[in-house]
Amino acid sequence: MQQGTLMRKVKSKSWKKQRYFKLQDDCMTIWYQSKRTGKIESAFSISDVETVREGHQSEVLQSLAEEFPPERCFTIVFYGRRSNLDLIAGSAEEAQCWVQGLRQLIEPRSFPLTFALVSCTWIRDWFQKADKNKDGRMNFKEVQRLLKMMNVDMNEDHALRLFQAADKSESGTLEGEEFVLFYKALTQREEVLSLFQDFSEDGKKLTLLELVDFLRDKQLEDEGTEELAMELIDKYEPSETARARHVLSADGFLMYLCSPEGSIFNPQHRALWQDMSQPLCHYFISSSHNTYLMEDQICGQSSIEGYIRALKRGCRCLEVDCWDGPNGEPMVYHGHTFTSKIPFREVVSTLGKHSRVESSYPIPSSALQGAGGAGPQQRGVPEDSRSHGGDRPLKVSTSPPPTPQELKHKILLKGKKIGRLEDTLDGPRDEAPDVSDDDNGAEAEEERRRAKVGGTQRDSALQKDKETLAQALSDCVVYCKSVSFRGFQEARSHSRPSEISSLSEAKARKFIRDAGNEFVRHNAWQLTRIYPSGMRTDSSNYNPQEMWNVGCQIVALNFQTASMEMDLCDGLFSQNGRCGYVLKPPFMRDEETLFNPSDPSSWDVPGPVTLTIQVISGQQLPKVANSKDGDIIDPLVRVEIHGVPADQAHQETKYIENNGFNPRWDETLQFQLHVPELALIRFVVEDYDKTSRNDFVGQYTLAFANIKPGYRHIHLLSKDGTSIPPSSLFVHICITE
């Protein structure tokens, strides 16, 4: 890899260009250049790479399957919205060299090494950016430029003092270890050092007992505290001598506070910690809308990448809109629009490969609603499902309703069905088949309004499908038979727990407003799916919180759109092993519950919980996208509470002028939570602007149930939910009942 390799970079069936790829000496950067011009085209950091996929695991490489064997092909997948990089090596051996080499470079390491590596990478990246003449040294003028780039507005005299203190060789420049010294002086955490010294008798170390006192008094760790203290010293103390003496230095203390154990997110809740043996309707299920779309709803690209990204994010409920295609092959796309199309077999193959990556719990698939006719294409869908995805669509029914635990590794097809679910077990009856309704009628109505693209109304193409359903396809629908919703009383009298109704966001809001308690009761025994308005042609999202407040399980969002709504979704489902299932609170699983999110008198709670958040400081906040080189942010922190209407609130700190590197706020915000079981807490950092809307800097969202009290770091995420190390907030959390 460091010697360099000539490979084909592929963008389409016709665009295949040779490029020379090389891993740089730092083992953290890869650049590539054109073979023809010799010009360096681009470079990327290893830290930007999320994963590497072998073989034909992209649409482009699948289209070249006959030309290039899978063992020569691989795909580099980046975090965020950066496009994947499809490559074809000259041989299988070269491909394996890069695949295995990249995987070793990006694989997770133990936290102390990762923490040191992030800091080291951060230092080196800034050094290389600021070293304009590339001589491996940095003079004071270059250091001043560096400070501006790093979001620091520092007094010139103070900057010169730090520079001279680090210049041990007195050469007037910083190189190697001297720059590291300068960086450490720059990143000195006075607020952490002060906390450390409060518990350290000599101000230089924490003995085992002093660390135990800190963990009990400030971090509210009450079980196995001595064992925990020993673990933290062994894990985070960088000095071998200190570890042998069972003491923690100031550096080790900071490493602990920046670690998963020092995070605001309770580490015990990252693993699977909830009961998974309840009926499906007792869980919130991470759900996507039109999963195949990468962009808007009218002309956007359809791609298997949409499914891969959603599954990697923990999504379990997917949409596969299947329509008749050419040459007898079903296609997946957004019907009656100009979105591109992908073969159904590729979608099923992708689900087979990626559905268990993040979770083995069932995938309720809102599938096949647009299948055109009753001909061979519909009948071929179950065959494709088995041949490409394995025999995983569920075809056996049991009573009582099944649980996520019982349905592991299964794909549940949600769709229309001929006759009753019982007939799947007992055999068909002589009576005329009843083809159930779906939400196509409601969605088609909205599509009529949005389909006036270019002034053309395509009413005839939007008529509800009335053709007979293929029996083989109908037989695949178990537990998630789609039925029209005709009111709560009607559902209680005639529906079954194995059925599901789909409601538009507008209809759901009407039920929330007019019959909140009935809606909660309904969702205690039957599944409800909510989908976005057809007017959201830009793939924007509605607020899922109001739907979760009444217990709706399948709240479908446009995963491709970075938004506050997706932050809430990621925040709720970041717990429980990221399995895509979160158990609803007990009062939402009771069919006789009195709970109504809009009526405080219906809440059986002892009194509000007080959440007190002291926002202390920020660390190395990123610059605002598309800002000028010399611009430095004026950061403020806003804390938002999302929950029942009475709990909705937000407060913010003052802004700190010209300091995105190590701002200090030391401000306390306080909130009253009446139904904490449903509350999500969102921390947002913005760049204050007095003349226009504030710019987004970073955010972090989590459920109240997952908050760990005490002194905690909040590791910020970008707009699209990816990590942006080492950016963080330092806070103190207090919860009183």
UniProtKB/TrEMBL annotation:
Q: Give compartment(s).
A: Cytoplasm; Endoplasmic reticulum; Membrane; Nucleus
Instruction: Report domain EF-hand positions.
Output: 118-153, 154-189
Question: What SMART domains does this protein's entry cite?
Answer: C2, EFh, PH, PLCXc, PLCYc
* CDD domains noted in UniProt: C2_PLC_like, EFh_PI-PLCdelta4, PH_PLC_delta
Q: Look up the domain of life of the source.
A: Eukaryota
Q: Does the keyword Metal-binding apply?
A: yes
What spans are recorded as compositionally biased (Acidic residues)? 433-445
Task: Give the membrane topology, semicolon-separated if more than one.
Answer: Peripheral membrane protein
The record places domain C2 at 589-718
Q: Which cofactor does it need?
A: Ca(2+)
Q: Which InterPro entries match?
A: C2_dom (IPR000008), C2_domain_sf (IPR035892), EF-hand-dom_pair (IPR011992), EF_Hand_1_Ca_BS (IPR018247), EF_hand_dom (IPR002048), PH-like_dom_sf (IPR011993), PH_domain (IPR001849), PI-PLC_fam (IPR001192)
- Provide the alphabetized UniProt keywords: Calcium, Cytoplasm, Endoplasmic reticulum, Hydrolase, Lipid degradation, Lipid metabolism, Membrane, Metal-binding, Nucleus, Repeat, Transducer
- Give the Basic and acidic residues compositional bias ranges: 381-394, 419-432
| Cellular component annotations (GO), alphabetically ordered | endoplasmic reticulum; nucleus; plasma membrane
Annotated GO biological processes are:
intracellular signal transduction; lipid catabolic process
Cite the GO molecular-function annotations of the record: calcium ion binding; phosphatidylinositol-4,5-bisphosphate phospholipase C activity
What PROSITE patterns does its record include? C2 (PS50004), EF_HAND_1 (PS00018), EF_HAND_2 (PS50222), PH_DOMAIN (PS50003), PIPLC_X_DOMAIN (PS50007), PIPLC_Y_DOMAIN (PS50008)
EC number(s) on record? 3.1.4.11
Q: Which Pfam families match?
A: C2, EF-hand_5, EF-hand_like, PH, PI-PLC-X, PI-PLC-Y
**Catalytic reaction equation(s):** a 1,2-diacyl-sn-glycero-3-phospho-(1D-myo-inositol) + H2O = 1D-myo-inositol 1-phosphate + a 1,2-diacyl-sn-glycerol + H(+); a 1,2-diacyl-sn-glycero-3-phospho-(1D-myo-inositol-4,5-bisphosphate) + H2O = 1D-myo-inositol 1,4,5-trisphosphate + a 1,2-diacyl-sn-glycerol + H(+)
Question: What is the protein name given in its UniProt record?
Answer: Phosphoinositide phospholipase C
Q: Which organism is it from?
A: Ardeotis kori
Lineage of producing organism: Eukaryota, Metazoa, Chordata, Craniata, Vertebrata
